[in-house]
Sequence to fold (360 residues):
Amino acid sequence: MTELITIERHIIEQQKKYPSATGEFSQLLADVTFAAKLVRREVIRAGLVDILGAHGSMNVQGEEVKKLDVFANEKFIQAIGHHGRFAVMGSEECEGIITPPEGKTSGKYVLLFDPLDGSSNIDANVGVGTIFSIYKRISDPTSGPGSLQDCLQKGVQQVAAGYVIYGSSVMLVYTTGQGVHGFTLDPTIGEFLLSHENITTPKRGKIYSMNEGYYRYFFDGVKKYIKYLQQEDKATNRPYSARYVGSLVADFHRNLLYGGIFIYPRTKKAPNGKLRLLYEANPLAFVCEQAGGRATDGYRRILDIEPEELHQRTPLFIGSEEDVKIAEEFEQGLRELEHDTELIPKMLAEVKKAESLLVK
Ligand code: AHM
Ligand code: MG
Fold:
């Protein structure tokens, strides 16, 4: 019989590898899991309790906030904020940093999170998710709560990261730098059980995910890369299939398991792309690299980017290592489209056919 391993037990077992671990970090991850369960409870009841629809306010990026975003944000702050295990938090839905409540001591960890990613999909019952990222504070712990500087660390400093998908089933995927592990929620017992141990992503996939509706705003490199993916070539499994949910967590998770590439590039309208470095790109880049994949902004490794502000955006090229490398070569103008070897004979045949019709 297969052994049933809950996420709490898995985290504790992993932490045993560090003799100096105090259990505080395991507790913080358990808090994240608990908050995810609260959010999931609301996500699946959303239609029933009439909390769907726009909340009417705008988030700090000037985008419309849905009620469920607000709820998820509050639950995370509530579930984690009251234990004094964190020094400072940052949320995609809050303009500034979040410090521990009055009277609570501050812990040694920093939590950055996107409480409900893919919010434009909520009303249509399409998968949405939560993304999280944990760092150690770098400010002096005797100086009180953590600071903005604690949040602006490079992604390479993350001690844990992961995401939760609220989809046809609920999954939590996380890494602490010792591989990537996935857990599926058993709703009957309310526990996340280990279902995907040591996830590795294929070196090359067959799927590309990007919002091609913005094609006219893309720069030449990405446009050529799309054409390259659509060319026919048996050796490299082209043409690729296009898959785009519009929920980063869902698109990322599918490609992680099946292989492929997700791109949200810089565009003529959005020169820094759309996605946020701290809440979306860094945690998924950590997971992706741990699974054997690659994540860059087209030029630089995501995890090496020095953040300058909390809500900084970044272009994102993420997924199977070989796919991302080829996309970068196009982005950087180092690679041109190959000639479609089958196209020329086909065109010549068409010309001949047309000529023969004209002679008649
Ligand atoms: P959100 O955090 O406000 O939901 O925005 C991020 C989402 C991602 O989940 C998704 O990849 C992207 O925005 C989709 O954007 P677009 O509609 O421009 O393709
Ligand atoms: Mg998001």
Summary: The two ends are 76 Å apart (CA to CA).
